Automatic annotation (TrEMBL):
Source taxonomy: Bacteria, Bacillati, Actinomycetota, Actinomycetes, Pseudonocardiales
SUPFAM superfamilies, sorted: alpha/beta-Hydrolases (SSF53474)
The Thioesterase TesA-like domain, residue ranges: 19-240
GO biological process: lipid biosynthetic process
Gene3D superfamilies given in the database record: alpha/beta hydrolase
UniProt xrefs under Pfam families: Thioesterase
Protein name (record): Surfactin synthase thioesterase subunit
Coiled coil: none
UniProt cross-references to InterPro entries, sorted A to Z: AB_hydrolase_fold (IPR029058), TEII (IPR012223), TesA-like (IPR020802), Thioesterase (IPR001031)
Amino acid sequence: MTDWLRRFHPADDAEARLVCLPHAGGSANYFFPVSRALANRLDVLCVQYPGRQDRRREPCISTIEEMADRVAEELTPWADRPLAFFGHSMGAIVAFEAALRLEAAGITPAVLFLSGRRSPSTFRLETNHLLPDKELVQELRGMQGTDASLLDDQDIVDMILPSLRSDYKAVETYDNRTAGAVSCPIVVCNGDKDPMVTAAEAAAWEKHTTGGFDLRTFRGGHFYLNDHAAALIALIAQKVKTVVPAAA
């Protein structure tokens, strides 16, 4: 494996691979339970961005474009089988942009699952990456995706702040309102109480695919997926099973 990819439960006989891309401030380990649950059906590759955990000494990447460039490059050797993507929040944008790059290189993904992120055509001006440290941590608390007890530990906060701020900068300075469309299906998943994504902003992803569109709404906020993991895993497994024969 490369520094960019974690393969927690190798599935050498799987018909397809699932690439999981975490949210801002997140790491590959967030998707360990997904990898474990799908190990007998899909070969799960979890992306580890630089600047966190075992890559914390590496410089962070502060643009979506560079992240997508690197992810697409790292995935190319793994495209011997159909690639499906699941990206949450920032990971959804990186997944989409990486898919565009792979398609330009002749590699068409099987399906994109894009979670907790509005479409590129629905731009919002945001500047959370410019907040003082204390206020940025409060913003993170409000998303309810990180154990609050961890955010009470100053050593942990000091460790995660650089990558968190860099990720927020990447997301908030990303502006591709004229983004094209992928040719694979897009499945958008969203929480009905997510302050980061309205129903209309989620539905606008339909403009960015010529291969079919499906919108799934769950109860919850930005990290609705923590409460609906089983349903999401079942959805991923069923959809990939449906599209992989055509993709292959």
